[in-house]
Design brief:
By secondary structure, the chain is of the alpha/beta class. The chain is built from 13 helices and 15 strands. β4 and β5 form a beta hairpin.
């Protein structure tokens, strides 16, 4: 069967650079992107993609948006249209509705479901997932939810998520334990780390609350925040108020993977009190276990990378006391740090990397 495939998306977000480049090089997929940056997320250099074909204009319609000229793909010579499955792209909904009339196959790169779908949203999710040719999902959790909704199993395929794996693996192999945190903090306490945007939804103040509670139990830790954002001033004020400012390092934003590698590799735990997302993948790529909350309906798909007690742990959502207990219990286990690193590596190397994603895309879209 002949396949001429295009991928269109809201934005060429930078963290998908490696998978986009592999799609470009190995699968000859053409790319179209919207011209806006959702949430201020940095964009990759589309000049790296030899099959980049142009920008579409994203028209903001409040909670929704319309991608100008994207519907014109129905009249193109593409046989397969591949896009993200976001609910708020109205032009994508129209493409999904009309595609069979034009003999087009549509594939989604999608979260699929979270578990909070009710009423009309649940019906629309089921309709969309059954209407398209197939969906590539970030995790097994979403697949199970969609099967329970009545989506056909043949439509659902898991291909996880990834970051700049090849670059990171080179750095990982060069890593050795270093006195990075001891030199900065002037002590030998366990080190917590968070990497990502410092936003209110990440509930990072719970880390400060947990640090105070741990101090009361004689278990003092340091914390490093890699990133910046709207919550930073609040966190700095709370740190001073709690007398923790000497034990918190606001490292700031960092896009240098070598520096990030050293920071993550030498940390004892990565803590993400809100939804965890790609923070888990970044940390585990460099062998650092991850703690996040246990309300999976409100989680991002990457929580599945965490195997309780092996590659991380879960605490009761919103509870600083539960988070403190979780951190303390993990540190008291005295687990072999190298064994934990290797367990984290195995998850990333077998699932969460662009090479496994390429295999999934090839097996689903180019299967015949």
């Amino acid at each position: 069967m002949r396949h001429k495939v295009c991928f269109f998306n809201q934005s060429p977000v930078h963290y998908r650079k490696e998978i986009f480049m592999l799609m470009d090089q190995e699968l000859d997929i053409d790319f179209y992107f919207g011209d806006s940056r959702p949430g201020g997320i940095a964009s990759m250099d589309v000049g790296l993609l030899s099959h980049f074909r142009g920008y579409y204009h994203n028209i903001n319609l409040g909670r929704f948006y319309w991608q100008s000229r994207a519907v014109g793909l129905l009249w193109s010579n593409y046989t397969d249209l591949f896009t993200t499955g976001t609910h708020n792209c109205l032009s994508a909904w129209l493409i999904i509705l009309l595609a069979p009339l034009f003999g087009k196959r549509v594939y989604l790169w999608s979260h699929g479901a979270y578990g909070n779908e009710r009423g009309l949203k649940r019906w629309l999710t089921r309709w969309k997932m059954n209407r398209v040719t197939a969906s590539l999902l970030y995790g097994e959790y979403a697949r199970r939810l969609l099967l329970e909704m009545g989506v056909k199993a043949s439509k659902l395929h898991v291909f996880y998520n990834s970051l700049a794996y090849d670059e990171q693996i080179v750095l990982r192999r060069q890593m050795q334990p270093s006195p990075l945190y001891k030199s900065h903090f002037g002590n030998s306490r366990p080190n917590l780390v968070f990497i990502g945007r410092l936003t209110k939804t990440k509930r990072l103040e719970l880390i400060l609350e947990a640090m105070s509670l741990l101090r009361q139990k004689g278990c003092e830790v340091n914390t490093t925040f890699i990133g910046s954002g709207e919550a930073q001033e609040m966190l700095q004020a709370k740190a001073i108020q709690a007398g923790l400012e000497q034990h918190i390092w606001f490292y700031g934003p960092c896009y240098n993977e070598r520096l990030i590698a050293e920071l993550l590799y030498n940390a004892d735990l990565c803590v993400s009190p809100g939804n965890v997302g790609l923070t888990a993948i970044h940390a585990m790529t460099f062998g650092t276990p991850v703690i996040t909350h246990n309300n999976f309906v409100r989680q991002m798909p990457e929580f599945e990378a965490i195997e309780e007690g092996i590659t991380g742990d879960f605490f009761t959502e919103g509870s600083g006391c539960s988070l403190a207990d979780c951190i303390r219990q993990w540190l008291l286990k005295g687990l072999d740090r190298e064994a934990t690193r290797q367990a984290c590596y195995r998850v990333i190397d077998t699932k969460y990397n662009p090479h496994e994603q390429i295999k999934a895309i090839r097996n689903v879209i180019f299967k015949d």
